[in-house]
Amino acid sequence: MRKLILLLFAIMPTIVLAQGFQVNLHGQKQIGMGHTGTGLLQDGASVLFNPGAISMLSENYIQAGVSPLLFKSDFNPSGTTDQFRTKNKVATPFTAYAVWGPKDSRWKLGLGVYTPYGGLTDWGNEWAGKYVLESLNLKAIYIQPTVSVKLTDFLSVGAGFVYNHGTVDLTRAIPLTSQSGQTGQAELKGNGHGFGWNAGVFLKTEVGLTVGLDYRSQVNTTVKNGDAIFNVPSSLKPNFPQPNTFATTLPLPSTTSIGLGYHPSDKWTLAVDVNFTNWDVYKTLAFDYSKNTSVLQDTHSPRNYKDGWSYRGGAQYKANNKLFLRAGGGYATTAVRDGYVTPEAPDANRYFLTGGLGYAVTNHLDLDVSFEYERVISRTQTNIESQLSGTFKTNVYIPGLSLAYHW
């Protein structure tokens, strides 16, 4: 029984920190070009990609977009021909940016509201891993006020303060059965907040090459008074005190990105980004519960994640003054070591392909659309805590749409 409860609560941090929940959907132009943007001047999404670049923008921006995300994962338990699939659920990561500064000034102010982490997964209550996970709804919203200054005509810098608000709702079955034959269930609900910063440098050259460097700090997100709700047989309720809460601090890792942009002609824009995520900070999870029993104790669970890299490239072609065509792709390494793969984030190395187009509706209004296909390479694992063993195969499909008004 004690092992069961320790596993139940040890699972929650994974849903927050696994690379599979790192949502890189921060601008339709950037998505269309393979998620490149650190070394480019494109639109208000530079608030996130590189705060140093926004003072170089020739116009002010107000823009917003959404990228509905469909996550489809299959699981084949080891030694069987069974197949379990997630239900069709659509998450809706969004972005909103504003950039403003007086005309011909050397500074601009920016504001970004975006969702860098999130997930919506539903395996149902009849699959082989129901004691690990039934469903998950995870959202994280970052709010980033920003300032950028043009030091010279070719060099600018910028930085922003980050406030993070996140929520999570997770359900899983408990291997306890009532007299009526109903399986027990646990629901974990909580919200938390944290603080960090984002800073960047942007450089323009005379040969059509632009260079950007961006650093987004670690954000330690503190969850207080998260609810642990149990539906168990009456005779076992003393082991599951209700109401009960927990507290924990979760390290969302820092990221460092370098990007290059190149304009070989008036019609073509090429870009490359390399991103490093410091997942190594995620070593141990600790939970402090307000009510303990002989079964339910505070937990300390090792995770020992490793750092992750992603490599991105893309291109844009200006067909005419109104129509822009985009394409790109990339590859990302997983942060989850063998033995820690879970159905919340059946993570592995992955590749992605993207495309998009932009259309100038008017001189001041842009419409941008994008589409991404992401293939998570199949991975056969046995989780060291839950002992869930089998092969995960995952595909992700992401259309996107945004509007940008500029003046």
Structure in words:
This protein has 407 residues and is mainly beta. It has one domain: Outer membrane protein transport protein (OMPP1/FadL/TodX) (Porin). Helix content is 6%, strand content 56%.
Describe the structure concisely:
By secondary structure, this protein is mostly beta strands.
Number of domain units: 1
The major beta sheet can be summarized as:
14 strands, antiparallel, barrel
User: What letter string, H or E per element, gives the SSE order?
Assistant: HHHHEEEEEEEEEEEEEEEEEEEEE
Number of separate helices: 4
What is the third-level CATH name, the topology?
Answer: Porin
CATH superfamily: Outer membrane protein transport protein (OMPP1/FadL/TodX)
Mean pLDDT: 89
Q: Indicate the percent of residues in helices.
A: under 10%
Number of strand segments:
21
C-alpha Rg (nearest Å): 23 Å
Unreliable segments (pLDDT under 50, ≥5 consecutive)? 1-18
Distance between the termini: 63 Å
Neighbour order of strands in the largest sheet: 1-5-6-7-8-9-10-13-14-17-18-19-20-21
CATH architecture: Beta Barrel
* The CATH C-level class name: Mainly Beta
Shape: elongated
